[in-house]
Amino acid sequence: MTEIASITPQRIERLRPSDIRLIARHSDELEAMSIVLASFVSYLRCFKDPTASEIDDVLSVSLQLKAADAWKIINAVDLMRAFRKYVDQSIYETVIKAVGVSESKDFTIIEYIAQRLGLDPATKELLPEAATGVAAPIPVDVVQDNKVAIVAGAQNTPNIKSKKSSVKFEKLHHDCLKYAEELRNTLGDTDCSVRGAYRESIERYLEDFPTIAGQGNMLLADSEARSLRGLLDEERDSLPPAIVDGLHRFFVAHQSICVFYDGVGQFYEQVRTGVLAPRLEETVVEFLAAIEQSPDFIDAAVVRAFREVDLDFKRLDVIAARLEIEKAVVPADPISLSPLRAWHYGVIGAMNAIYAAYRATKAPVGRTSSWLLSGQALAAITAPALSRLGASGPEAQLAGH
Amino acid sequence: MSAATPDDQPLRSLDQAFGVCLAPSRVDDVETIYKPKSLHRLDAESAKLMKRLIDVTEEGLRVTRYVYSELPLLWVVDGRGDIWFSLEEVVDRDGNYLFPKPSRVPVATPSKKLGHPSLIGGEQGRIGGEILYDTGAAPPRWFITNRSGRYGVRAGRTPEHLANVARMFGAYGIEFAADFYPPPDGAL
What we know:
The structure holds two protein chains of two kinds.
Chain A: H1 9-13, H2 17-25, H3 30-44, H4 52-67, H5 76-82, H6 89-99, H7 109-117, E1 140-142, E2 148-150, H8 163-188, H9 196-208, H10 218-235, H11 241-258, H12 262-273, H13 280-292, H14 300-323, H15 339-360, H16 368-388, H17 394-398
Antiparallel strand pairs in A: 1-2
Chain B: H1 11-18, H2 29-33, E1 40-41, H3 44-58, H4 62-70, E2 73-78, E3 83-86, E4 89-91, E5 97-100, E6 112-114, E7 125-134, E8 141-145, H5 159-170, E9 177-179
Parallel strand pairs in B: 8-9
Antiparallel strand pairs in B: 1-3, 2-3, 2-7, 4-5, 4-6, 7-8
Helix pairs in contact in B: 3-4
């Protein structure tokens, strides 16, 4: 199993003859093939409006996998249909043409995962516990209609301990919002020569900023503020002084307001001390697809929030990599943040929180099997990443599955 | 000496040797305008240089082993039977060479990569593929494959076509193991 782990999304793009033979040797092993095909899907997701040359690459890789007998256990057409929404249409068609059309039925992600992991709702009556002690970047819980939804939590509700503290909070909240809106207006001015990434980031900040308690998400707003700090660090010398001043004013207000949201500090405390989980990119692909295909149990806003956690923290990591700064994006940042670890903890914490809330929903009458299967799939996808973080939870209970 | 079959040889023998000439099903604009800077036609002169690269790699020069394990050379047989080979290059909007295309590094707009069709001006071609040094093979060695969606894995391409290209290189003392990937069942 160790050697097949070398077939990463990066390697998939450039399979060598020895890689083809390696895959062929493991082609009848479910776990090994799930690693290879997760890498394949992850690779396919990279393409947006692919060029002819890129389509050529995808065709070649598909045929190499076919030559390696990679589709012996997991049908290629089933896999592609399950992930159809997540890949460019021309990429989808290329793979289907390459591997041939089969008569198989449409597959949901849940069914695909169930097949790949050998899940069977008939064999297990209870869902495993969610992990404990993992900070969640999004507040989720079960609401009245038995759905997992975004609720009020430490990420969008300030912790105000006294009247004096309340007055201070109100002023900071007002200032932060005002500075952010001023920046948006300045950056949106047609005469402004600053590139669009700044305006897009401040707009996303304002979308996430909790204007009233229980709505928005200060942690996600904070990730946008960090993106802006990264951009500023990169281009400080070329920015108009008025923009630099506006950004500084905004950062000071933002850092001050963050203190009132416990969810921000709790999350970064884990990020600071955490480790990295393996193959998380593929895990995120499957988890996102699984929750999106469970609309009866998981609210669309939860799916959007999870996607935002993934994108926001990944964007931070990209900026940090460009700056070649591993620890802190900005020297003045009070939190010593590894952007890569922030992404890992962000998506894993969100996955665990969503699963925990899902587990608290009730199995609908007459649909126990599908409810149980979705829950098993969410637990199974999340378990390896949680296990790596040292969290107790589904992994141990799944071990005997 | 040219590696190509003489012009007056019947086309059908070229079809037999290297597959029928087919237009690429998709071509990026840049691939019809610019050619790779590293492009060579296989002939006595280029083969002599190529053989030195092949030999020094097989003798154990690790830097070339690891470079050509990750940056395969592209090759295509054109309508006349000439074999062309080059790096997969990334160019800017004016066709200026930027760098060879490494794996999984996005090519930022407006840069474009020059794939197989660029070796022969985007025209019809016979079989095509890649040449690489496979460090993972036991033992590690040079391979030639038909890994080209637009020329190599088209309907009608056969292991024999690839073997014939390997033989053309072999005529100059350049030895490759051939690895053939079957085309899809339907024509693409």
